[in-house]
Amino acid sequence: MDVVLIPGDGIGKEISESVKTVSDALKCDIKWIEYKAGADYYASDNKLMEDGLLEEIARCHIALKGPTATPIGTGFRSINVYLRQNFNTYANVRPVSTFEGVASRYEDVDLVIIRENTEDLYKGIEDMLDEDTAHGLKIITRQASERIIRYAFEYARKNGRKKVTCVHKANIMKLTDGLFLDCFTKISKEYPDIMNDSVIIDALCMKLVSDPCQYDVLVAPNLYGDIISDLCAGLVGGLGFAPSANIGDNVRIYEAVHGSAPDIAGKGIANPSAILLALAMLLKDNGMSDKASVLEKAIRDCIKDGIKTKDVGGNCSTAEFTAAIRERIENEAL
To answer: Is the pLDDT of residue 311 over 80?
Structure first.
């Protein structure tokens, strides 16, 4: 199976090496096709991404990317946004769960944020009305809302989830969020086997930090989904354990949610867990659920046994942590 690998910037290059090491141990039969993109590439070649990247993603239909930084004041907003819009990867899926051995206020957190990925304020439609007034356009369409909401219910049904919760601010944003909520109310009736409810975004944030275990699948417009994804990651130990999948009809792009961490780049101490968990999502979605389970178990067992990187209280280097995961994988019958 051919998969495009975008190491990205900063620690991306280091954690991408972990991906190759682990996929070899899993005997995934993946051929990694590497392309450059991000701020480092922009600085060296004055391009957003290497020539041929988009065409190769379109051919392979699957990509895995490390973190990419966005240069300030140089003309492009975000590679993540660019790729999502270019390939219409309308669903952003972010699972969040607790890891034994990682300090957290909570136990048994296991929820999934499903975020609409193509519109809302992230369309980036902005202008200056005058020198003192900035204007931004919030776009919510019925087509995109119905698509992401139906995806959330289908995801819940496929993965044995019990409830889908709609996140909104329809009490104030009566037309835009009102439309999103209306779509949810109608579509939820098509899934009588799955419980549903709705919650206002600010109330949700309070409830999440009070008791995140009361939620199962959260479906949200783009901006709210982005915010609550990071909030939920913070509840279980941080972005170092936050994988993500950007799902479209023809292309799927998996990634670590965290940034490029230039302050620790090249020091060999980065935590590769998020991108390895993204690899597990990729494997599961491509008919290799057994290998995905072995990988996730290896990560969890290492952390539980105190084999951790410095960001979560351990003393392992990136390479040492990766080697420990590989050893556990090789001890399993694949």
So the answer is: yes
